[in-house]
Write a structure and sequence with these properties.
The complex is a heterodimer. Helix content of chain A is about 50%, strand content about 10%. In chain A, α9 runs parallel beside α10. The longest helix of chain A is centred in the N-terminal third of the chain and has 25 residues. Chain B has a single domain, classed as Rossmann fold (3-Layer(aba) Sandwich). Chain B contains 8 helices and 12 strands. In chain B, the strands form 3 sheets. Chain B has a 6-stranded parallel beta sheet, with helices on both faces. Chain B is globular and about 70 Å long. Classes of the chains: A alpha/beta, B alpha/beta. Chains A and B meet through α2, α3, α4, β1 and α8 of A and α1, α7, α8, β9 and β10 of B.
Chain lengths: ~475, ~250
C-alpha cells in the first residue's frame, strides 16, 4: 500500500506556502476551476435545479451504500453473466496480488494504465516493476508525475504543480526529446511515446468512475482518450474499483454525468464516456478478450462501520472541495501525505489508513463550509471533520492522536472549572504568574516552549485585575437595594 | 451459451463483512426501492413511446440544440440535406488535410453514403477496419495506428451534451473512432435524442426486448481528445482525434 506521510503535514505545508511558483500556479488553477464550474452551472442548469440534482444524487448514493451488500452481489452476478471476472480484495496487498496473478497468467510484459486513484492507494506500479512488468501511466498528468517519481498533487489535475519547463526537462531526460516551451509540442511528444506502448501492451488497467449494478457496466469519464485506448487496445482489461463506486441503475448515470464533469472541470460533459461491461463479444472486431473487475475495500470498511462517517463513501472524486478550500489553495496536495488531498482527503485518510499518523488532517480546515456547499453529493465535510477531531481528542486508544500534554492540560482545566472555589483560587494564582508577561492588557508573542504555538499569530487579553466575582462581592452587592427602586 | 466465470472465493466473506459493518446479520431479500430497477417491459414500452413522440415533435429544436452545443464543444458541424452532400463533405475534409490513409467502419449508413467513391476521387480510398478472409484481427491495430482519418456512423446523437454514442460490433472496430487524428461521425437526423435520459431509457427497452444484456462496450464521444494537464492550457489531440467533424444528414 502507498505509504502514509501525513506525519510531515506541517513541514510540507510550510514549504508549499513559501514556494512562490507553486503559490502562483495554485492561485491560477484553482481560480480557473472555480469560475468554470460556476459559469457552466449558471449557464444551463441554474442554482435551483442544481440543488435538486445534488439532493437526488446524495440520496441515491446513500441508499446504495446502506444496501451495499445487495448491490455488490448484483454487480458480481451481472459482470460474470457478461463474461467478466469479479474479484474481491480486502486490502491493497490482496488487490496487488490479484492483478499480478492475472498479469503473470497472461505473460504480460507491459501494462498501460489510465487514471485510477485506487491504484495509487495500492502502489501497484512498484509491485509490477518488482515483478519485471513495465507499468505506464497514460493520462498525461499521471505520466508526467510517473516520470518525476511523484504522487498526484490534485485528484483531477495530478501534475498541476509542474511548469512546462519542468515537463520539457523530464521529457528530455526520459524520452530524449528536444527541449521546448510549446505545450502542444510536449503533448505530441507524449502522444508519440505512448502510442508505442498502446500498440504493444498486453494489459490495460483502468479505474472506474461508476459501476452500474443492474448491468455490470463500468463507466469511465475521461478527456484525453487514454481511457478508451486502455480499454480497447490490449488483450486484457483490468478495472480497479473502490467498493463504494456503485450506482444501482443505468439511468442513474444521466444524473451523475450531469454532476461530475461540471463539478470537476466545469465541462458540460467530458470528451469521452466509456461504458464497459465485459470482454468483447465474439463477433467484435477488437477489444479485450479478458475482463476483470477488482472490487477493493482497503480501509473503506472503517468508513462504512461508522454511521457518522458513512456518508463520506458517497464521494464521486470530482475535486470540487479541493478547488474551493482555502487551506488546500495555500498548502496544495502533497502535505496531506496520502492519495487523497483537500477536504475529502482530510476526512477519508484518517479512517482508511491510521488515525494516529493522520491526526493532523481533521484540523487542516477552517470549517468555512464551502466544501459542503459545492459537494455534488452533499457530503457534510465540516461535520465529519468535527467528528474526527472528537475522535482524535477523546477516541479509543487506537484512534487518539492528541498529545499527552494537551490531554493533561484539558483534564486539569476540566477539574478546575467544575468547582467555584478552586477556580477562584487558580485565577488568583494565574494572575500572579501572568502579570510579568502582560503588556497593555494583552499577552503577546511568547518564546517559551509549549505556549509559543498558541501565541504565534494572536494576542490574548490579559486577566482582568479584578474578576467579575470579586466586583460582585464588593461593589454590586452593596447596590442591592437600588434594584427595587 | 457464453462462458460464465466462477465466483471469486473471497466473495461471501467480503459481503458478510459489508453486512456486519452495516449492522445487519442477513442478506437483503427484496431489492431496495429504486424506480428504474422496477420497470417492466410494458411500462418501458409506454415510456419509450412518449420519448419518441416528444423527440419527433421537437426534432428541429433538437437539431439546432445539437449543433449549438457541438460547436461549443469544439466539434466542426456540417449540416447537409442529402447523402451526396455528405459524401462530398467527407471528401472535402480529407482533401483539406491531404490525407492518404483513411479507415472506416461498415454500417448501414455507408450503403446510403458512397464515401468510397468520393474519397477515391481525392486520392484517399478508405480501408474498412474489420477482419475478413484476407485480414486477421491482429492486423487491425497496426492499420488503425497508421491511419490519419476515420469515418464512422453512430448509434445515437444526444443534443443535451453534443455526444455521439458509438457502439462497436461486427464491422465497427473500437479503434476506427479513436486512433486517427481526424474523425468524421455521420449522424442522421432521426438518430438525434434530446437528452441523456432518453438514451438510457431507449437502450433499456432494447435490452428488454432482445432479452440480452446489450453491448459490452460503447462510448459517448463529445468532442476532440483534450487535455489541460500542462499549466492548465487546453490542448487537443492527445491520444484520440484532435479534430472531430459531425456531419448531420437529413
Amino acid at each position: 500500500m502507498a505509504q502514509v506521510k501525513t506525519a510531515e503535514f506541517k513541514k510540507i505545508s510550510k514549504q508549499a506556502i513559501k514556494n512562490e511558483k507553486l503559490q502562483h500556479s495554485l492561485d491560477h488553477v484553482m481560480e480557473h476551476f472555480v469560475s468554470a464550474r460556476s459559469s457552466i452551472i449558471d449557464q444551463d442548469i441554474g442554482a435551483e435545479n442544481w440543488e435538486l440534482l445534488r439532493t437526488r444524487a446524495a440520496s441515491i448514493k446513500q441508499s446504495t451504500i446502506e444496501n451495499l451488500d445487495y448491490y455488490l452481489d448484483l454487480v458480481d452476478k451481472n459482470v460474470r453473466r457478461n463474461g467478466g471476472y469479479v474479484h474481491f480484495a480486502n486490502d491493497a496487498n490482496e488487490a496487488n496480488q490479484i492483478v499480478l496473478d492475472i498479469a503473470k497468467r497472461n505473460e504480460v510484459k507491459t501494462v498501460i494504465k489510465s487514471k485510477s486513484m485506487v491504484s495509487e492507494e495500492m502502489g501497484i506500479n512498484e509491485v509490477l516493476e518488482k515483478a519485471g512488468i513495465e507499468p505506464v501511466e497514460t493520462d498525461l498528468g499521471e505520466y508526467i508525475i510517473q516520470l518525476a517519481g511523484e504522487t498526484p498533487f490534485h485528484i483531477i489535475a495530478p501534475a498541476m504543480h509542474k511548469t512546462k519547463e519542468e515537463v520539457s526537462d523530464l521529457f528530455q531526460d526520459w524520452l530524449k526529446t528536444a527541449p521546448t516551451q510549446d505545450i502542444k509540442r510536449l503533448c505530441i511528444y507524449a502522444r508519440d511515446a505512448l502510442r508505442e506502448k498502446f500498440a504493444t501492451a498486453e494489459m490495460g488497467i483502468s479505474g472506474a468512475n461508476f459501476v452500474v449494478a443492474e448491468t455490470g457496466t463500468v463507466c469511465l469519464v475521461t478527456n484525453e482518450g487514454n481511457g478508451r485506448m486502455t480499454t480497447s487496445a490490449p488483450r486484457v482489461h483490468v478495472v480497479l474499483a473502490g467498493m463504494e463506486k456503485i450506482v444501482p441503475a443505468i439511468e442513474d448515470l444521466a444524473l451523475f454525468l450531469r454532476l461530475l464533469p461540471r463539478s470537476a472541470t466545469g465541462q458540460r460533459i467530458t470528451s469521452y464516456n466509456t461504458f464497459a461491461s465485459g470482454p468483447r463479444n465474439q463477433s467484435d472486431e477488437d477489444g479485450p478478450e479478458e475482463f476483470h473487475l477488482v472490487i477493493v475495500d482497503n480501509g473503506r470498511m472503517n468508513l462504512l462501520k461508522d454511521e457518522e462517517m458513512r456518508e463520506a463513501l458517497r464521494c464521486i472524486r470530482c475535486g470540487a472541495c479541493l478547488n474551493h478550500c482555502p487551506v488546500y489553495k495555500k498548502i496544495g496536495g502533497h502535505a496531506y501525505g496520502w492519495v487523497y488531498s483537500g477536504p475529502i482527503g482530510a476526512i477519508v485518510t484518517p479512517p482508511m489508513t491510521n488515525m494516529k499518523v493522520a491526526s493532523d488532517l481533521p484540523y487542516a480546515s477552517t470549517l468555512c463550509g464551502t466544501c459542503r456547499d459545492v459537494c455534488p453529493v452533499k457530503i457534510d465535510i465540516p461535520k465529519l471533520l468535527l467528528h474526527l477531531r472528537h475522535k482524535v481528542a477523546e477516541g479509543s486508544s487506537s484512534e487518539r492522536g492528541s498529545a499527552w500534554m494537551e490531554r493533561l492540560f484539558i483534564g486539569q482545566w476540566h477539574k478546575t472549572v467544575r468547582n467555584r472555589k478552586s477556580l477562584e483560587r487558580r485565577v488568583k494564582l494565574a494572575r500572579i504568574f501572568l502579570k510579568p508577561i502582560s503588556r497593555n492588557g494583552k499577552i503577546k508573542k511568547l518564546r517559551a516552549p509549549m505556549v509559543s504555538g498558541w501565541t504565534n499569530s494572536r494576542d490574548f487579553p490579559a486577566l482582568a485585575p479584578k474578576s467579575f466575582g470579586d466586583i460582585w462581592k464588593s461593589g454590586l452587592s452593596g447596590n442591592n437595594g437600588n434594584r427595587n427602586q | 451459451m457464453p462462458y460464465i466465470p466462477p465466483e471469486h472465493p473471497n466473495k461471501s466473506a467480503f459481503l458478510k463483512k459489508v453486512r456486519e459493518a452495516l449492522g445487519r446479520t442477513h442478506p437483503i431479500l427484496h431489492a431496495p426501492d429504486h424506480p428504474p430497477l422496477k420497470s417492466n417491459i410494458a411500462r418501458q414500452r409506454e415510456k419509450v413511446r412518449t420519448i419518441v413522440a416528444r423527440n419527433d415533435a421537437r426534432m428541429l429544436t433538437n437539431i439546432n440544440r445539437l449543433m449549438e452545443n457541438a460547436s461549443f464543444a469544439s466539434w466542426n458541424v456540417h449540416r447537409v440535406e442529402s447523402y451526396e452532400d455528405a459524401a462530398a463533405t467527407i471528401a472535402r475534409v480529407a482533401r483539406s488535410h491531404k490525407v492518404k490513409n483513411v479507415i472506416r467502419s461498415s454500417e448501414e449508413i455507408f450503403k446510403k453514403i458512397d464515401v468510397d467513391k468520393s474519397l477515391r476521387s481525392v486520392g484517399a480510398p478508405p480501408t474498412i477496419l474489420a477482419s475478413s478472409r484476407t485480414r486477421r484481427r491482429g492486423q487491425l491495430k497496426s492499420i488503425a495506428f497508421k491511419s490519419e482519418m476515420g469515418v464512422t456512423g453512430v448509434g445515437y446523437a444526444i443534443a443535451e451534451t453534443a455526444s455521439c454514442a458509438v457502439i462497436p460490433r461486427k464491422g465497427v472496430a473500437r479503434l476506427t473512432s479513436l486512433a486517427p487524428s481526424v474523425l468524421i461521425l455521420l449522424v442522421e437526423t432521426e438518430q438525434i435524442l434530446e437528452n441523456l435520459d432518453d438514451f438510457f431509457a431507449i437502450t433499456r427497452l432494447k435490452r428488454m426486448e432482445s432479452r440480452s444484456h446489450g453491448p459490452n462496450y460503447y462510448n459517448f464521444i463529445s468532442g476532440p481528445s483534450r487535455t489541460a494537464d500542462i499549466e492548465q492550457t487546453l490542448t487537443v489531440g492527445v491520444h484520440g482525434p484532435g479534430e472531430v467533424h459531425m456531419v448531420i444528414v437529413g
